[in-house]
Each structure stands twice: as structure tokens, then as C-alpha cells.
From TrEMBL:
Its main location: secreted. It comes from Acanthisitta chloris. InterPro entries: Cbl-bd_prot, Cobalamin_Transport, Transcobalamin-like_C. Residues 120-196 form the Transcobalamin-like C-terminal domain. The lineage of its organism: Eukaryota, Metazoa, Chordata, Craniata, Vertebrata. GO terms for cellular component: extracellular space. This is Gastric intrinsic factor. It comes from the Eukaryota.
């Protein structure tokens, strides 16, 4: 469907494909389809925007080495922000099922809960509400990254680079394309956090 890896890898993948186009001809890739995926997505993280923007203006980071800044200015790109729709009514509440599962280390567990949050809430909010309602079961820790918050521990079980373990978030059995700081669950969605390996 035009997706290359996930929404986070799209920007760099598009830059790489554009920069190396002459090396993989005559094999074609559907540039239009890939750019349609990028233009439909509402990027929230500065790192994701920084990686996709060069491809959208027909450049790559490799082009930066050949820029002549003393030359007259070329075409300028203006990013416009669409104003949001404001209403006097708070968003309707939605219910999301949240499950955590560990079948890898120590005492295995699987716990589920239903969480109610305002429609449009990010996944991180779902985790926060679950942890507030049932802290003994759904406590979690995050680390700040350039891609936003990353969940590093749930229920006292932390991922490890030595063990090659991490918490993977899924919906309907599919890995989420976004992180907990940007993904917005929909009403009735079942979000799973599985302790897994890479």
C-alpha cells in the first residue's frame, strides 16, 4: 500500500530511493503511492518531520553537501499549519481494551483492563489511566527519545539490549506504525503490549 517499513522509516527510505534511483533502474518503485502515504499522515514528532521533509521537496540529506549558500536563494518551502476545529463540547469518551503479556522471562503473565479516555487521546494516555486505576498491574516507565516517549518497562519488567527484549505494541495482531506519544486508539480497539525479542 505504499508503506516502506513503517511511518517512521518512510522519510529516510524515500530519500534513499530518490538519491539512488539510477542504480536500481530498470526496476520501478511506485513513487506516487509512497508519497501518498507520507502526505496522508499527520506527523507529530519533529524527528519524523525532519526525515520526511527533504524527500517532499525532492532532496535528500546527501544534497546538503553540494549546497551553495552564497548563491541567490532558490525556491522556498513554506509549511502551513491547518488550524484545528474548535468546539465548546469536550470529546466523547471512548473505551479501549489494554492487555500486557509476558511469555519470555520470569513469571509469565497476561493482564487486561478496559480504559476510558477522551476520543483523540494518544496511547500514552491509555497507559497512564490504566496505571492510575491498577498501579500494581499496569505500572510502566518511559524514556525520552528524539521520536517521543518510548516505553521501556511495564509491570516491573524492562526491555534489555543484552537480552534483545522490548515491549511491542500491537492492534489486531499488527505492530503499531506509531509510538505511544502519537498513536491515537479508536473506540473499542484492543491494544496489546507484548514483551518480545528482536
Amino acid at each position: 500500500n505504499g508503506m516502506i517499513g513503517n511511518i517512521y522509516s518512510m522519510g529516510l527510505a524515500l530519500q534513499a530511493l530518490e538519491a539512488t534511483r539510477k542504480f536500481y533502474a530498470p526496476r520501478e518503485w511506485n513513487c506516487t503511492q509512497a508519497f501518498a502515504v507520507v502526505s496522508r499522515h499527520d506527523y507529530q514528532q519533529p524527528m519524523a518531520i525532519a526525515q520526511v521533509l527533504p524527500a517532499l521537496v525532492g532532496r535528500s540529506y546527501l544534497d546538503a553537501a553540494g549546497l551553495d549558500c552564497s548563491a541567490s536563494p532558490g525556491p522556498q518551502v513554506t509549511l502551513a499549519q491547518t488550524p484545528g476545529v474548535h468546539t465548546d463540547f469536550p470529546p466523547a469518551p471512548i473505551t479501549v481494551t489494554y492487555t500486557i503479556t509476558n511469555k519470555l522471562q520470569g513469571k509469565h503473565f497476561k493482564h487486561s483492563t478496559s480504559v476510558t479516555v477522551p476520543d483523540g487521546s494518544i496511547l500514552l494516555r491509555v497507559l497512564e489511566v490504566a496505571a492510575a486505576e491498577k498501579p500494581q498491574t499496569f505500572s510502566f516507565e518511559t524514556e525520552k527519545t528524539s521520536w517521543g516517549p518510548m516505553v521501556v518497562s511495564i509491570h516491573g519488567l524492562a526491555g534489555s539490549t543484552e537480552d534483545r527484549t522490548y515491549w511491542q505494541f500491537l492492534s489486531a495482531g499488527n505492530a503499531l506504525d506509531e509510538g505511544v506519544g502519537t498513536y491515537k486508539p479508536h473506540a473499542g480497539e484492543h491494544i496489546q503490549a507484548n514483551f518480545t525479542t528482536y
